[in-house]
Amino acid sequence: ESGTGKELIAHAIHRNSYRKNGPFIKVSCAVLAENLLESELFGHEKGAFTGANTEKRGYIALADGGTLFLDEISDMPIGCQSKLLTFLDSMKYRPLGAVKERTSKVRIISSSNQPLWEMVKTGNFREDLFFRISVVRLFIPPLRERKEDIPGIINNFLNHKKHIGAQAMKLLLSHIWPGNIRELFSTLESACICSAENETLQPEHIGLDYDKTHVYTESKKPKDEKLEIMQALKKSSNNKSLAAQFLGMSRITLWRRIKKYGIGVDENSCDETCSCHRL
């Protein structure tokens, strides 16, 4: 989903890697047209096209030795996908208008709020690129499914500049957060402004008077979700990791749903020692 903190995770990976002293560059694939995206990624030589009055280094060159974060890679045009695949296979690229190839030792992290495998099946995302970028896959559950993270996220955001009262924390924990971490950050920023000189945030400082809970309570009825889960389990031959991928949720979330709806599964395929039981 959107706003779950994908960029924060990418930053954390970068900060805790041997590339931490290198640059971290984010590129939003959703906001650039195909002709601009290629130029932005790979750069161009002077005179490569009308208006190219100077040489420009692309993001791949600028991120050399560091991390390039491709946000919403699902929105990358097919033409650019093929060029990105070529680069990932060889770590070499050619700027627009250039004769010689260049090399960049950059790590690529990509994110998507769309199911890429479904896009592959509909022809909207290259299968070969999907497998090339799927070396390590992380699924970030929505905030409503990991509320135990909320206190830590809040304290990190406030950074000791303000504190949060017990009742205010209770209010934030009870909210469903359809906008995920992005909504939480916006709410906290608003609360800090409304609290003025008060050092402790109270419920009256928190603006959650809009009602979005119907987005999730009415959009999918329990019997519909139960049926989807049963179909995914059947399709995956009771492989819960694979079924979770089909459903676009984490394995832990799937196991919670299985228990919630009382769905029968092969007990021999998963027991109390399995990681999905460690909630």
In the CATH hierarchy, the architecture of the largest domain is 3-Layer(aba) Sandwich
Terminal CA distance:
21 Å
DSSP helix fraction: 40-55%
**Sheet with the most strands: spatial strand order:** 1-2-5
Compose a concise summary of this entry.
The protein is mainly alpha-helical and 279 residues long. It has helices spanning 6-15, 34-42, 59-62, 78-90, 116-121, 127-133, 150-158, 166-174, 180-194, 214-217, 222-235, 240-247, 251-261, and strands at 24-28, 67-71, 92-93, 102-103, 107-110, 163-164, 200-201. The strands form three sheets. Strands 1-2-5 form a three-stranded parallel β-sheet.
3D architecture notes:
The chain is mainly alpha-helical. It folds into three domains: 6-133, P-loop containing nucleotide triphosphate hydrolases (Rossmann fold, 3-Layer(aba) Sandwich), CATH 3.40.50.300; 143-216, Helicase, Ruva Protein, domain 3 (Orthogonal Bundle); 220-277, Homeodomain-like (Arc Repressor Mutant, subunit A, Orthogonal Bundle), CATH 1.10.10. The chain has helices at residues 6-15, 34-42, 59-62, 78-90, 116-121, 127-133, 150-158, 166-174, 180-194, 214-217, 222-235, 240-247, 251-261, and strands spanning 24-28, 67-71, 92-93, 102-103, 107-110, 163-164, 200-201. The strands form three sheets. Strands 1-2-5 form a three-stranded parallel β-sheet. It has a two-stranded antiparallel sheet with strand order 3-4. α11 (222-235) packs across α12 (240-247) and α12 packs across α13 (251-261). The longest helix is centred in the C-terminal third of the chain and has 15 residues, at 180-194. The protein is globular, with a radius of gyration of 22 Å. 23% of the residues are buried.
